[in-house]
Amino acid sequence: MSDNRTIQLVEIPIGGKGGFTWNRLHEEREEICETLVKTSEPDSDVDRDLLQARLRKLDDALDRLMSGSYGRCSQCGGAINEIKLETDPATSLCLDCCESKPSSVNSGSEMSSTAALHAPVA
Ligand SMILES: [Zn+2]
Questions:
Q1: Quick one: CA torsion of 70, 71, 74, 76, rounded to 10 degrees?
Q2: Averaged confidence pLDDT in the chain
Q3: What's the CATH code of the domain at 65?
Q4: How far is the CA of 24 from the centre of ligand 1 (A)?
Q5: Domain range spanning residue 21?
Q6: Distance of alpha carbon 110 from alpha carbon 112, whole angstroms
Q7: pLDDT tens for each residue of 69-108
Q8: I want to staple 16 with a disulfide (CB 3.0 to 4.6 A). Which of 12, 89, 95, 121 is the partner?
Q9: Ligand 1 being an ion, which residues bring their Cβ within 5 A of it?
């Protein structure tokens, strides 16, 4: 029995190392790094937490780009809308998951509450 997985080495049109998306992510990453260095004074107006979070997102995206999973939703595995990727190349969620993303991910406990959704409105 051979490996059933068909590994298709497709040229990733949107990225790949050295590709357009890669460059975009890298440029933004460098910009943020610079900003973080420049704004190391405690009285700066820059929201460093926000920048650092963004930096992590960019790193994640670069990781996915290298591992070949770029463009796939990290939550449901579905393809991420190209327009969404163009708007934010670091995005890791498809439109569905992005919109329905709850502030606290707590799946599993939702099962029992579904019945309440179907309760007749008085
Ligand atoms: Zn998704």
A1: -140
A2: 78
A3: 1.20.120.910
A4: 23
A5: 16-116
A6: 6
A7: 999 999 999 999 999 999 999 999 999 998 765 555 444 4
A8: 12
A9: 73, 75-76, 78, 94, 97
CA of 71 to the centre of ligand 1 (A): 10
Q: Does residue 4 form part of some domain?
A: no
Cα–Cα distance measured from residue 63 to residue 85, given in angstroms and rounded to the nearest whole number:
15
Q: Using only C-alpha atoms, what is the Rg of the chain? A: 19
Within-domain flag for 2: no
Residue 38 domain-assigned (yes or no): yes
User: Whose structure tokens read 């934010």?
Assistant: 88
- The confidence score (pLDDT) of residue 39 equals 85
Output the CA 70–ligand 1 centroid distance in Å.
Answer: 13
Using the 8-state DSSP alphabet, how is residue 112 labeled?
A: G
Å from CA of 77 to ligand 1 middle: 6
Neighbours of 18 (CB within 10 A): 8
Ligand 1 center to 79 CA (angstroms): 7
What does DSSP assign to residue 110? Answer: T
Tokens of 24: 């975009």
- Give the number of domains in the chain: 1
